[in-house]
Write a structure and sequence with these properties.
Blueprint (H helix, E strand, L loop, with lengths): L2 H13 L16 H10 L5 H14 L4 H8 L6 H7 L3 H4 L2 H8 L2 H13 L3 H8 L3 H12 L10 H11 L3 H5 L1
Helix pairs in contact: 1-8, 1-10, 3-11, 8-10
């Protein structure tokens, strides 16, 4: 089941818990040719090979060599990232168990309170075209409304995911 399934369930619960609907129809499934192309584009590379190619693309995009070298100095892959990516709870537990643990009454209550009380949401919705319920659901699921900050280097994590290949486009972006 795709990650967007869980976010959709959380959005629905914040917006109206009686409107939770099946989400299989939300995502179009790519055809065989698209899957083959995606597989070729996301094949794992050795980290040094990925980093070299990414650096070259950054230079073409106008970043200075000094800036790139400063930010990437000593950058190495983090094997914990790939291990954690492979055991995300939404994929390693039955969906019902995951939703029961992730979409609690308290989390829904907090999300509804934020939906009504935070004054910056209209400007964000206007600028980016993303409804506040989606933003709140992602905020809840990914960081428990900012309470979970993490302790891993973001650049190292994203570089590791990009070099791994499964989510290269997202991680490089």
């Amino acid at each position: 089941m795709e990650r967007r399934t869980f976010i959709t369930l959380a959005v629905a619960a914040v917006a109206d818990p009686m409107q939770v609907m099946p989400v299989d129809s939300l995502a179009a499934r790519p055809g065989s040719l698209q899957k083959a192309q995606l597989a070729a584009e996301t094949a794992p590379l050795d980290f040094a090979g990925w980093l070299s190619g990414f650096r070259a693309r950054l230079l073409l995009d106008g970043y200075s060599a000094e800036e790139i070298d400063r930010e990437f100095a000593g950058l190495t892959p983090d094997p914990r990232v790939i291990a954690a990516d492979g055991r995300q709870p939404e994929f390693s537990r039955p969906v019902g168990d995951y939703v029961k643990g992730a979409v609690s009454e308290d989390r829904v209550r907090q999300g509804r309170a934020f939906r009504e009380s935070l004054s910056f949401f209209p400007a964000i919705e206007q600028q980016f075209g993303v409804p506040r319920e989606i933003l709140i659901a992602i905020w809840a699921m990914e960081s428990n409304f900012g309470r979970i900050q993490g302790d891993m280097d973001v650049l190292r994590c994203m570089a590791t995911l990009a070099a791994d290949g499964r989510r290269r486009g997202w991680a490089e972006g």
